[in-house]
Task: structure prediction
Amino acid sequence: MRSLAKILILSGMLAVGPWVVAQTAQYPFQNPALPVAQRVDDLVNRLTLDEKISQMPLTAAAIPRLGIPEYTWWNEGLHGVARSGYATVFPQAIGLAATWDTDLIHRVGETISTEARAKYNDAVAHGNHRIYFGLTIWSPNINIFRDPRWGRGQETYGEDPYLTSRIGLAFVTGLQGGDPAHPRVISTPKHFAVHSGPESTRHTADVHPSPLDLEATYLPAFRATLVEGKADSTMCAYNAVDGAPACANDMLLKTTLRQDWGFKGFVTSDCWAVTDIWQGHKYAPDEEHAAAAALRAGTDTSCGGEFNALRKAVDDKLVTEGEIDTAVKRLFTARFELGMFDPPQSTQFGRIPFSENDSEAHRTLSRQVARASMVLLKNSNGALPLGNNAHTIAVVGPNAVSLAAIEGNYNAIPSHPVLPLDGMESVFGRRAKVLFAQGSSYVAGASVTVPRTAFRNGGEEGLKGEYFSNTNWQGQPAATRSDKEIDFDWDAASPMPGVPLTAFSVRWTGTIAAPGAGDYVFHLAIKPCNNREENQNEVESYHFYLDGKLTAEGQCNRRQGEVKQPLAVHFSGSQPRQFSLDYAHSAPMFGAGIHFEWEPDAAAMRDEAVETARKADVVVAFLGLSPRLEGEEMPVKLDGFSGGDRTRIDLPQLQEQLLEALGQTGKPLVVVLMNGSALSVPWAKEHAAAILEAWYPGEEGGTAIAETLSGENNPGGRLPVTFYASTDDLPSFADYSMAGRTYRYFSGQPLYGFGYGLSYTTFAYKNIRLSSPTVHAGDSLTVDADVTNTGKHSGQEVAELYLRGPRTQGAELRSLRSFDRVTLAAGETRHLSFALDPRRLSEVDESGKRSVSPGSYTVFVGGGQPGEAEGVQADFTIEGTQSLPR
Result:
């Protein structure tokens, strides 16, 4: 044992090692054979009050005398292990929901948690206890995407509480694993509760949901993930609910969470949400009272430093040490269950090697999920898949070469991202010529990545990139390669093998040309210095040379947001000009990355795209949005966009103009939408040959899109949100009432409805059968039906089951109650069986009470909603009444 301890000390693992200290101390909390509760009690009883409080802020302090290491609670895994270097990047959460495949999403959760463990094990072995390398994963976001204008809706599983519940449950159980006593990681469903924008008022908004909306819409996914899925944590929201901030809300945290649902895990605040209790909501007079209110309601840790004020709160008798003990015990229970105080090699998860991170097998899964997320919205006269008669394909649009458009937000860093243009060239390049023109920016006033067509390095497209293992471009480069664009996110990652992530520099050289004469505004975007850690020696700088002259230079300022310097340059024509860009980075871990962008001349870009389209047999336009326009509390104020949210849901005007100009060429037009929220595209619906919704599809997104367009992948995804025809169809964004919102309450005609999606084959339903025409309240109902692939190709169908009951008449139009994604060969018939238990048969009344109620019901099974897709239906009657628990 003495030699083992010596090895661990030499390898930097003493910080994890209360069990190493146990060689001499023999404290009960260091004994893995004892029950977790006993170990937690023993440890907490040994702590001073100040030491207990030190465990409750964002970063739990180290307690050297007991061998307790520092630990940061904040870690991200929404669709990949985020912000901690390279990891597998799956489609954004809204794309995960579009698969309607719970088995697949469970595998995604398993993969993310495996990579989180691999990173954690490696980090601890190297003495790294930084943020984003831990095991408490602040995902999934299961708020209901009630309004398409919400910028963070991309992080959710859509607008429906049942779909969100099932996808969320699959993700949580995939993350945590099958043994609640020994989770692989701890999942944190968020934001509890009733939280879905606007971003601009989230720190002050007081939401008043009706009892019906609260129980029927805003709480079911939390109940599913916390009660059924046994997630060990949840995050309270910024906003207030019925007068009390969510992180100090007795109704939410005491009555609903702890009392009604029996939740035993820990609650974390959203970041600095405790500050909002007094500064935003004016619910408390100061930080001390705000921290006390949050603790007493049931918040156990604050993302921020507000809980440091609890020492004064104890002295002033606002809270007791016993209340602090309760919270600290919940926090340490999580850490003990995760095995953080056991020998790493003694647990199965502690032995997961770093090679499991960003593996080829996980990359293959990401591609599979991206393929499954594709939703075919239109396909006139079999325009897709693209056949052999497409000898020349014109690829246009701002998303064709955008890294952000495949990453989404809260994302991992892809080591080998496949951009849409690269996917098209890879899949179609063997049989067709692929041309490219960017065509436009996203929206007037926004910059977009300078595309590869602007650069030349000798006779090659792109630039020469020289990578140095120092910050001043000295000596021979450690590596040299051709870079197509300067659009790199290297946060906590090395830019190339052999180049240190902590200190490096890059020089790009070649020529740059504009598509035509005009004024072009360039932007050099670099990450902020000191984004996540204190270090006076951080470097983040660039030097931009044009025609051999230093044209612009810059460096980041401490605690400043992303540095984005505009530079106006006039091009008299399309003649190439000498180009050079130097970039340097130095920091202990985080912050590397650079994006070279421009605001191009709109007319010149559009003309170039039209000319390119005229040379092609078919045009594929990659249009939509960007996570740099829609997202969390963003400094964006552009036409149609404000603060991360949208003010209109239509396709931005610049892209609409491009689309219509391309249509005037008469060439078949395929529109690929990449976005995190619903878009209104009526012109495309009427005029385009085909429309494919691809979301923000992850690291393999470019390949998955191209494989779908080629027919190698038959799309089977379904919309998890309603695509409305117009912003005018929407109620006020700030109104949390569900009246007139989502497919359940919207009586208008959508552009494309929730659950909608086409295939390259066709399906037919028949033989619906019920286990009984009459159901006694409290009993279950089984619904059987047959689905047949009536087309010529193998394909995947999502069979959707909707229920309409007596209470839904005049209010809720219909409600999804089950679904099943199945694969069918051409001509194959599959028997479907859906078991509807009392909760799936229940409805909620105006007072918020859930029960199985008597009356006449209709059940529909088909490839979409009733009236929008082929299917079969049957009627049944429920007799009697049974109340159900919250």
